[in-house]
Amino acid sequence: MTATHTSRAHSAKYQWAAGLMAFAAVMLSIVGILDIFRGIAAIAEDDIFLATRQYVFRFDLTGWGWIHLILGVVAVIVSIGLFQAATWARVAGVAIAGLVIIANFLSLPYYPVWSVVAIAMSGFIIWALCVARKDSFDDAFGSGPSRGDM
């Protein structure tokens, strides 16, 4: 009876790790795709952006467009790596989500509501990538016990 309980505990731990990694991968791909669209809109100098002059951080809208476009492309590439359970993608995902938080904080005067939403989404991505332990993460994606062992 103890073996059955241990097997269920391991199974739940593996499923938890896999679920968090899938959550982070999906969220990072969504943030990346939306950042790509936001970058394109800023490069085209669309009218959806609010430009205020009373803000400490004042940057060119086209420059912000290129920054968001590049961050978005890199985020989508990293999310593909997360779907494949690559360790480099997990580390890069935390770094990219951190950079997205910084970029969205600095671009608050141009698109305030979406910047706050993107900051919150990136915070959840960082949480999901950091909360699962490496051994659970590795076992959840194929190197752990097979279904026949459970």
SSE map:
Blueprint: H1 2-43, H2 61-83, H3 87-106, H4 112-131, H5 134-143
Helix pairs in contact: 1-2, 1-4, 1-5, 2-3, 3-4
- Tally of contiguous helical segments: 5
Shape: elongated
> Quick one: how many beta strands?
0
Distance between the termini: 13 Å
Q: Which regions contain 5 or more consecutive residues with pLDDT less than 50?
A: 143-150
Relative strand content: under 5%
- SSE-based structural type: mainly alpha
| C-alpha Rg (nearest Å) | 19 Å
Q: Mean pLDDT, as a whole number?
A: 77
Helix and strand succession? HHHHH
Written overview of the protein:
- This protein is mainly alpha-helical and 150 residues long.
- The chain is 77% helix and 0% strand.
- The chain contains 5 helices and no strands.
- Helix 2 packs antiparallel against helix 3.
Task: Describe the structure concisely.
By secondary structure, the protein is mainly α. The protein has five helices and no strands. The protein has helices at 2-43, 61-83, 87-106, 112-131, 134-143.
Features:
mainly alpha, elongated, 150 residues
